[in-house]
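STRUCTURE REQUEST FORM
Protein name: glutathione transferase
Source organism: Folsomia candida
Requested output: structure tokens
Priority: standard
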Amino acid sequence: MSESKPVLAYWNFRGVVAPTRMLLAYLGVDHDEIRYPANLAGVKEWHKIRDKMGLDFPNLPYWKENSEDSEDKGLTESRAIIKHIARTRGNGVLMPTSLDDLVTAECVEGVVYDTGYGLVKRCLYDADPFKEDLKAAPVKFDQLEKFLGTKRWILGDQLFYVDFLLYEVLYQFEAYDPDYFKAYPSLSKFKGRLEALPEIRKYMESPSYVSGPCVHPFFARLKI
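Status: completed
Returned output:
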């Protein structure tokens, strides 16, 4: 079996893979990344090879542990990918080990996903019903603000994969409205705390860092 670096493939914007990129940087995982252009040519390029990749559920992003191993079917779906990496890299330090912590992490993961998807719909369609949907987001942020409280990270003193998911939603909402989190001091401090981690700061200053756009610019009517 030939050896090669693992490969992460996605579009050349933040989207749903930004937390995984950040987690990989934090863990120092040596990997390659394929970034398809976020334009019509990139869409056509991906569609041309999508069904030839050997993926059970062809989609972007995908992750392959060994890109040169024909038996490596790879993994798709962003949340499956980030949790797989959290389990298998860095001695699993970013994946909760107790059942109680895992249940809490996955509950917060669901809240974060639902909240972030409201903003994605707002950007994709830029229509009144989706603008109204965003009014539900403050309720979720109120809950997250209260749950986080004075804790350093979502589950306390230990950083886990779910913190990267929460960070990205905060980042994207702040890109949408820079004043969004003035009323949420705990969430604002959380965001700054993660950005201040040496590994993350180094990544954000590197050429490989993608600051935006947050949503596929070819499909989004509202650009952030």
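Reviewer notes: The CA atoms of residues 152 and 190 lie 7 Å apart. The two ends are 43 Å apart (CA to CA).
Form closed.
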